[in-house]
Amino acid sequence: MQDLVKLLYDTALLTSGFTLDDPSVYARRVTKMISLGLSLDAEEGEEMATDSAPVEEATTEGAASNMEDVD
User: Fold this and answer.
1) What does the alpha-carbon distance between residue 11 and residue 26 come to, in Å, rounded to a whole number?
2) Across all residues in the chain, what is the average pLDDT?
3) List of long-range contacts for 63-71, beta carbons under 8 Å, 24+ apart
4) How far apart, in whole angstroms, are the C-alpha atoms of residue 18 and residue 67?
5) Which residues touch 29 (CB under 8 Å, ≥6 apart)?
6) What are the backbone angles phi and psi of residue 62, rounded to the nearest 5°?
C-alpha cells in the first residue's frame, strides 16, 4: 500500500512538471505494480526491471507520428 501511495505522489509530481530525485526508484515501483497486476513472480518482475533492450513501437506505413500531430 505504501508503494502505491508513493507511486501516486511521484506521478502527481511528474505531471505537474517537477522532477524526481531518483527516477530509478519510480521505475522500480511502476515495474512492481505492473508485475503485481499481471500476477508475475517476483523473479520475473526483476527480469523485467533489468531488461535493457529498447522497446520499439509498432508503426504502419503512411501513418503520422505523434510528434507530427503536435504543432
Assistant:
1) 9
2) 75
3) none
4) 22
5) 3, 6, 7, 10
6) 85, -5
Enter the DSSP assignment of 57: P
* Three-state DSSP state, 41: coil
End-to-end alpha carbon distance in the chain:
40
pLDDT band for 11, please (50, 70, 90 cuts): very high
Half-sphere exposure (CA, 13 Å, Cβ side) for 4? 5
C-alpha cell at 41: 513472480
pTM assigned to the model: 0.52
CB 47 within 8 A of CB 32: no
